[in-house]
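2024-03-11 09:14:02 DEBUG pipeline.ingest accepted 1 chain
2024-03-11 09:14:02 DEBUG pipeline.ingest length=106
2024-03-11 09:14:03 DEBUG pipeline.predict start
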Amino acid sequence: MQKTNIYVLKLKRNLIPLIFLMFTFCLLIFSKTNLPAVKNGLALFANSVIPSLLPFFIATEMLMHTNIVNQIGYMLNSIMKPLFNVSRSRCFCFCYGINFWISSWC
């Protein structure tokens, strides 16, 4: 009886990798029909996702290398700590993420 329990646990643990392996195998078999979809997906990524996120990444890196992040975190700590339980060092990242989320709607 205990051997069957071990096999069941091993099957549950290996189920997701087996599904991904099967998915990859199907992609290789039917690659002729998938190539146009892959090209369209990469073109969409290169033409819309990268240009929209690049300014966000550049601005974030520039602000992280200055002392502005600590000063903004210090100013927002009194508001953010009671509302969201966010520490002073994470206030700027939280506000910047909310700002990016709101600006993406406009």
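2024-03-11 09:14:41 DEBUG pipeline.report The chain has two domains: 1-52, 66-106.
2024-03-11 09:14:41 DEBUG pipeline.predict end
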